[in-house]
Design goal:
The complex is a heterotrimer of chains A (390), B (319) and C (510).
Chain A lengths: L1 H12 L3 H23 L4 H11 L14 H26 L8 H17 L6 H30 L3 H24 L17 E7 L2 E6 L1 H18 L1 H11 L1 H7 L3 H27 L11 H11 L4 H25 L5 H14 L1 H19 L7 H9 L1
Antiparallel strand pairs in A: 1-2
Helix pairs in contact in A: 1-15, 2-14, 2-15, 3-13, 4-8, 4-11, 4-12, 4-13, 5-6, 5-7, 5-11, 5-12, 6-11, 8-9, 9-10, 9-11, 12-13, 12-14, 13-14
Chain B lengths: L1 H26 L7 H23 L5 H27 L4 H28 L6 E2 L26 H19 L1 H11 L1 H6 L4 H28 L1 E2 L7 H11 L4 H24 L7 H5 L1 H13 L19
Antiparallel strand pairs in B: 1-2
Helix pairs in contact in B: 1-5, 1-8, 1-9, 1-10, 2-3, 2-4, 2-8, 2-9, 3-4, 3-8, 5-6, 6-8, 9-10, 9-12, 10-12
Chain C lengths: L3 E12 L2 E12 L3 E5 L6 H8 L7 E6 L2 E3 L4 H6 L2 E4 L11 H6 L5 E4 L3 E4 L1 H14 L15 H14 L4 E5 L7 H16 L3 E6 L2 H7 L2 E6 L2 E7 L5 H9 L17 E11 L5 E11 L3 E5 L6 H9 L6 E6 L2 E2 L5 H6 L2 E4 L3 H5 L6 H5 L10 E2 L2 E2 L1 H15 L16 H13 L5 E5 L7 H17 L2 E5 L3 H7 L2 E6 L2 E7 L5 H8 L6
Parallel strand pairs in C: 3-10, 3-11, 6-9, 9-10, 15-22, 15-23, 18-21, 21-22
Antiparallel strand pairs in C: 1-2, 1-4, 4-5, 7-8, 11-12, 13-14, 13-16, 16-17, 19-20, 23-24
Helix pairs in contact in C: 13-14
The chains are: A mainly alpha (390), B mainly alpha (319), C alpha/beta (510).
Chain lengths: 390, 319, 510
């Protein structure tokens, strides 16, 4: 009983503690979701299976004409790409101690700007349009991020409040512009963008199945590697981490805190901009006026679940995307409201946020176990050794 | 012009009660960004109660509104225990907890509204339709030019909120509970050494903030939106927090800030109507409160003094 | 034992990882001044916190007036007549003095028979009377944030008296006072004793024990070493018992050998956020091989002078010259590269990044240049070897080597890491702010020795400290700061402790 008791505690305080916290959070979420499903009279296993089927991870019983498991899988990856980018955006700011809750707004603004400038321009070829879209995404998102960083550093405005305000301002502004100039009368959404500008190739035939190919997935993985490299190996990454952990000491060290905050928010916004174009000109090809993408908030769940680590967030993104993307199929085959996907993501986020507490409990257990095994040294005994040595 | 004051006040008061909720929590030392979520969940409980009671007590029965308000307060207080648990017991990062609660609230209310509607009426709608609330005007005062608008066409909940605000002000500034609460937000060690129960006080403050936010939410549902649906989440919770920041964490100035937000919103809308702009332009004017908030934050954030201990989890063994 | 008003029997208290009190038994007689002597970390504060009800003992019992009692909170202790003045004042800054004193025992009334209400007028009156009765004059409506340190201590004492305390615990009360204020406080304690109160004095300052205490209990590493009658004991005896070995009271200091001026501060003025002058027209010079110490009561501008010299705070006017070069507008990094080191006051808030590893913290001065980084890319091997070198040179104890997280290290070792990081580079100017705060005698001796070594090497040293003993034993030149003004600059051997104390209180002519 002793040994097994401490198994969990040891994992939570060891080198891979963050990984184990995430695993624990996922397990707890699965248990909670199962209980919830049972309470409304549904079979949890069938529900989870249908999530996986909806994403093309396991085959469905029947497929419509021209589509197959690969179609679903590619659709899933098409959703995954912007999700990974959005969570990387959150992580980049988070490491500097900043909460970029405005990813939704940044995504929308970048997607809208790119759609209007490139997406409606019939004269551009794919080779020109697609890189241009990425550039606009980076620029628009980056500038928004720098603005938020500036407001924080210069005026001490808490970024949670400023980013939420910007979210609503952006959503009303773009909604107004779409409704007045770019609206498609039939769908009430914005007009669709040209296929040349689109970051996802549609209607590609692979083995007789109609598939989409998300080009932005490659981009997402590249950015993840870049962000990881930034924080592990570069001077700038080191400074961002320092500012995030202790601003005052960073000042003493000579780090220019203002520049660091602006840069990290700028990067965060820029990556959010990429997520925006990957979403609005990849995953979909039109914009619903005044609607902020829920992905911007889900990305926070992903980032926290991945413990703020870039590579870890890829796996966390897979988990969260699984539930979001598979919800439609699950809803139609099992008969549960598709809002349950958001609920599951929310519960997952809750458990992930308790991660620190779990680690703290684990540390306490280990300390208690050690104390009862042998009497601890009296205070100052450590110092005592120093005294004798001197 | 009267309409500006009428609509302005009916927006400002629910905002104010939410802001005071946030204020209570922050003054006790618990950073509260979860007001948005609390008001949504509180409104959910209120609307649920109204929907359940409507067939029983008769459609259009105004008493239902009062019961809905009580239900909203209780529901908000109950849900705020999650934030309390995360911040007080688990000592999580309070900003993260607030953001988590807001995300969770949207998901929770959407799911349970569908589920409840499914159970009640068989159709999985994500709205609870609410009755229209009757309005009344104060006899003599509504005749005053301009300001008379403040007393015309009032919702009954506005009176409830005004009374509550006075009670809450008194509680915070004149009673021992309020004094200890304010001390907890500045130096919880002092309260502990004086024999006060820091954890207990903070729990009460968080639950008060949940209850007050819930009241704000259901009032918005009745006045502004006309139903309970995902559109309850319009960022008003964050506006309330901004008002609290401008008010420098004091009830008096916060009231002024909320009035200003309310008048800006209703004023902008009336301007739009008066200029006879097409309805598309309303979106631009809806943007006004948020832009105003941002501008005001630019000018006023430097001088603000949040409670010193807000955001720091209370740890008894730290000296 | 029968005239004991308070008895602690076999008290044991554990915290995760340490035994703070190990089977301690003491008895305190009514009307005496009983001192608890011990180093930082010996367990004295913990023991008294148990008596005051903040903690509950794991084992043992407390008796008051011969009857066993259990305290679940400090209200219980207060009900038995026990009060405590804490080392770190437990005051609410925006509240008035009266509000702070009555917090927890507010005079409650019911307005109109129904509404609960705190009667602050009554409280103000009661406190005025109380303060006059005990010679602790305060104005009840002043806000704590506007009031100096010595007045804050009076408020803490009044807190006890307001609750009718008969047994009064003072935790390190003289740490923040000037010599004259210490005299005043000891007089107050004497008055209280004559009034029949029992006083428990927690301190590590033997001189004060010799002046005022009747008996003294010595604690070391959580255990009671012994109890002595102060009248028959010597200071040396008490000191040796406290530390467990022979203690050297003064450091060996070689005669000064001054070199070229390294730091010149000319007419420095610094304003705070309310545009108020916290440093006013201060000028001084420090030569190589000289220790220049700034003495002053906490909050008189010392911290701001250090920050301005380091570049963390902008000077409103005046100049800072380092090695002859005007550095007044230069950013921090330029100054550190030009030959400045800074050991700040607070280890965890500003001296280190507590959640980073020892390795990363030790490299904070160097991480951006070769061999630690080339073209913006970090070289982890360089970090590693540098950390290992410093760990060896400065004897830094770390459980997991360079990968140890700073937060988990002891205070003494954290300070060693900071000092090592800063002086390894052997810069011309070293600034020490409160370098020995919260450390035990062994660590303090170590730091003092390092400071003197750097002085011999020829560095210019700016020492800012609240411990007058430390200043008197280390400094070559002393500058006394009062309300932002440098009232006196003089060679240390020409100043007496009493004179320095008077300048610290603002007396312009000693």
């Amino acid at each position: 009983m002793r040994k097994k008791d401490l198994f969990l505690a040891r994992r939570l305080t060891g080198r891979y503690a963050s990984l184990w916290v995430s695993v624990l959070a996922i397990l707890l979420m699965l248990v909670t979701a199962s209980i919830l499903l049972l309470l409304i009279g549904k079979d949890p296993l069938a529900a989870f299976r249908s999530f996986l089927q909806g994403c093309g991870m396991i085959p469905k019983a029947k497929y419509g004409g021209g589509s197959g498991q690969l179609t679903d899988l590619m659709d899933f990856l098409n959703y995954l790409a912007p999700m990974i980018l959005a969570s990387l955006a959150f992580i980049t700011a988070f490491r500097a101690g900043l909460f970029n809750i405005g990813i939704s707004g940044q995504m929308l603004l970048a997607g809208f700007t790119a759609t209007v400038i490139v997406g409606y321009n019939k004269a551009l070829s794919a080779a020109v349009a697609k890189p241009l879209v990425l550039l606009i995404g980076l620029a628009v998102g980056g500038l928004t991020g720098v603005l938020i960083g500036f407001l924080k550093y210069r005026f001490n405005i808490h970024e949670v409040v400023s980013t939420i305000m910007l979210n609503y301002i952006i959503s009303y502004l773009t909604g107004f512009l779409i409704n007045s100039n770019y609206v498609d009368m039939m769908t009430r959404n914005s007009k669709v963008c040209t296929p040349e500008a689109r970051l996802t190739l549609t209607n590609v035939m692979i083995g007789g199945l109609k598939c989409k190919i998300p080009l932005s997935l490659v981009l997402a993985i590249l950015i993840a590697l870049l962000v990881s490299f930034l924080f592990r190996k570069t001077v700038l990454g080191f400074e961002i981490k320092a500012v995030g952990m202790n601003r005052r000491c960073s000042e003493y060290t000579g780090i220019r805190v203002s520049r660091t905050i602006l840069l990290s928010m700028g990067f965060s916004g820029a990556i959010a901009g990429l997520a925006g174009v990957a979403y609005y000109m990849g995953y979909t090809n039109s914009i619903i006026p005044k609607a902020l993408p829920g992905m911007g908030y889900d990305s926070i769940s992903v980032a926290l679940l991945g413990s703020g680590a870039p590579i870890g967030s890829i796996f966390a993104a897979v988990i969260v995307s699984l539930f979001q993307q598979g919800a439609n199929y699950m809803s139609s085959s099992i008969g549960v409201a598709k809002e349950i996907a958001s609920l599951i993501t929310g519960i997952l986020l809750l458990f992930a946020a308790c991660g620190n507490y779990m680690k703290y409990l684990a540390e306490r257990r280990i300390q208690q176990a050690a104390d009862t095994m042998q009497p601890s040294p009296a205070p100052g005994e450590q110092e005592d050794k120093e005294v004798k040595a001197l | 012009m009267n309409k500006v004051f009428t609509d302005g006040l009916s927006f400002a008061l629910p905002l104010l009660i939410m802001a005071i909720g946030a204020l209570y929590s922050e003054k006790s030392g618990v950073t509260n960004l979860a007001v948005e979520g609390f008001q949504g969940v509180g409104a959910f409980f209120g609307a649920l109660a109204a929907t359940l009671l409507s067939p029983v007590m008769g459609n259009g029965n105004q008493l239902i509104i009062y019961i809905a308000i009580i239900a909203a307060a209780l529901g908000g207080a109950l849900f705020s225990c999650v934030h309390g648990l995360l911040c007080i017991r688990f000592r999580a990062n309070q900003v993260i907890s607030g953001v988590v609660i807001n995300i969770l609230s949207v998901a929770l209310t959407a799911f349970f509204t569908s589920a409840a509607n499914q159970a009640i009426s068989g159709s999985a709608s994500n709205k609870f339709v609410l009755d229209v609330s009757t309005r009344f005007s104060v006899p003599l005062l509504c005749g005053i030019p301009w300001i008379g608008g403040l007393f015309t066409n009032m919702y009954p909940f506005e009176i409830i909120i005004m009374v509550l605000v006075i009670v809450l002000w008194y509680l915070m500034n004149k009673t021992t509970f309020g004094m200890r609460l304010r001390a907890c937000g500045e130096n919880p060690q002092a309260v502990d050494a004086a024999g006060g129960n820091v954890t207990g006080i903070r729990w009460k403050a968080v639950m008060i903030s949940g209850a007050l936010s819930g009241i704000g939410g259901i009032c918005f549902a009745y006045s502004l939106i006309g139903n309970f649906s995902p559109s309850i989440y319009q960022g008003f919770g964050y506006l309330a927090i901004a008002a609290m920041i401008f008010g420098n964490w004091k009830i008096g100035p916060t009231t002024l800030a909320c009035l200003m937000f309310g008048l800006a919103k209703s004023g902008g809308l009336q301007l739009c109507i008066a200029a006879q702009l097409p309805s598309i332009y309303t979106d631009l004017f809806l943007m006004l409160p948020y832009v105003l908030t941002l501008l005001l934050l630019v000018f006023f954030s430097k001088k603000n003094h949040p409670p010193k201990a807000a955001g720091e989890p209370w740890d008894k063994s730290k000296r | 034992m029968n005239d004991c008003i308070v008895e602690l029997r076999h008290i044991t208290k554990r915290f995760p990882g340490i035994i703070a009190n190990d089977d301690v038994s003491i008895g305190i007689r009514k009307g005496e001044v009983y001192a608890l002597l011990g180093e930082n970390g010996a367990g004295k504060s913990t023991l008294m916190s148990i008596l005051f009800g903040i903690y509950e003992p794991d084992q043992g019992e407390i008796l008051v007036d011969g009857k066993p009692v259990t305290f679940h909170s400090s209200t219980d202790a207060a009900a038995c007549g026990i009060g405590m003045v804490h080392q770190h004042f437990k005051l609410v800054e925006p509240f008035t003095i009266a509000e702070n004193i009555v917090l927890g025992v507010e005079p409650k009334e019911k307005k109109l028979g129904v509404l609960p209400w705190v009667n602050m007028q009554k409280a103000n009156r009661q406190i005025s009377e109380l303060s006059r009765a005990y010679g602790l004059e305060v104005n009840p409506t002043d806000r704590i944030m506007d009031v100096p340190v010595s007045v804050r201590q009076r408020v803490e004492i009044l807190k006890m008296l307001y609750r009718g305390a008969e047994i009064m615990i003072f935790d390190e009360p003289t740490a923040v006072l000037t010599p004259q204020e210490i005299d005043f406080l000891l007089q107050i304690i004497d008055n209280l004793r004559r009034d029949g109160k029992t006083i428990i004095l927690i301190t590590h300052k033997i001189a004060e024990i010799m002046r005022i205490a009747d008996r003294c209990a010595i604690l070391r590493q959580g255990r009671l070493i012994g109890v002595r009658e102060v009248a028959g004991a010597s200071a040396q005896e008490l000191a040796d018992l406290m530390v467990g070995r022979q203690v050297q009271f003064t450091q060996e200091k070689t005669p000064p050998q001054y070199r070229e001026p390294v730091l010149e501060v000319q007419h420095l003025t610094v304003k705070n956020e309310h545009k108020y002058d916290v440093v006013r027209d201060v000028s001084f010079t420090i030569r190589g091989g000289e220790i220049f110490a700034i003495a002053g009561v906490s909050g008189n501008g010392q911290g701001e002078i250090a920050d301005a010299v380091a570049g963390l705070v902008k000077a409103a006017s005046g100049k800072v010259l380092l090695n002859g070069k005007d550095m007044t507008g230069s950013p921090v990094r330029e100054r550190t590269l030009a030959g400045m080191s800074y050991i700040p006051e607070d280890r965890l808030a500003t001296g280190t990044i507590p959640d980073m590893t020892l390795q990363d913290n030790l490299a904070l001065r160097e991480y951006f240049r070769p061999p630690f980084a080339r073209k913006g890319i970090l070289n982890q091997d360089a970090f590693r070897s540098y950390a290992e070198k410093l760990i060896g040179t400065y004897d830094i104890r770390c459980a997991q080597g360079p990968d140890t997280v700073i937060r988990s290290m002891s205070g003494g070792n954290q300070q060693k890491a900071i000092v090592g990081r800063e002086i390894e580079e052997q810069t011309n100017l070293i600034i020490f702010v409160q370098p020995t705060r919260g450390l035990d005698i062994g660590a303090i001796e170590n730091i003092h020795r390092q400071i003197l070594q750097e002085r011999e090497r020829g560095a210019a040293i700016l020492l800012i400290s609240l411990e007058l003993d430390e200043i008197m034993s280390l400094a070559d030149t002393i500058g006394v700061l009062y309300r932002g003004e440098m009232l006196k600059i003089e060679a240390a051997d020409r100043l007496s402790t009493q004179e320095v104390g008077r300048y610290m209180m603002g007396v312009k002519e000693a």
